[in-house]
Amino acid sequence: MTIPGLAVAIEHIFSGSRETISLQRASLKPKTIHTLMLVKQKLKLAHTAVQDILGDD
Description:
By secondary structure, the protein is mainly alpha-helical.
């Protein structure tokens, strides 16, 4: 059985939330955590796009 690409992408986002939501940040509001996760994902996408443009590996 294969896992659809979307499921893998979602799992990647949620596994990254462990880095965002640590014991030091446990008191953050859900909206703040959501925003941090979105910003983190957008930065990763932007970094990948820049690497593609520059041809960096």
